[in-house]
Amino acid sequence: MARFWLVVAVVAVAFMVYSLVDCAMADPRRIRGPRKLVWILIILLLPVLGGVLWFTIGRGRAVPSRPTRTVAPDDDPEFLSKLKKEADQAERIRRLEEELADLDSDSDPRRIDEAGDEPDRRDA
Questions:
Q1: Crossing angle of helices 36-45/2-25, nearest 10°?
Q2: Domain positions in the chain
Q3: What predicted TM-score, i.e. pTM, was given to this entire model?
Q4: Which of 42, 69, 87, 111 has the smallest CB count inside 10 Å?
């Protein structure tokens, strides 16, 4: 009879450990009832009953991670707004580069030409 109770105790401990790990690793969005910490305490204080309660009441269905239907890029407002932002940013960068080139050409009369040579200095 002692072997029977030993087997029952081992199964109960294994079930409790499995329940604890499942509860601790569960996504908070799919937990029903109290928060995760409360469920862990319930499982610890009521070893077998806490695990049974966790699997019957606390553990909800899996939350779908992806949308159920796909959306074409030209129908997705988020994608379209991202394209508009990128186009605006590219235009802003182009304008800033033009302004910088204008400032560079106006500000330094002794600029080095593209070949790397300094222009001739002529005293008037």
A1: 170
A2: 2-58, 73-106
A3: 0.49
A4: 69
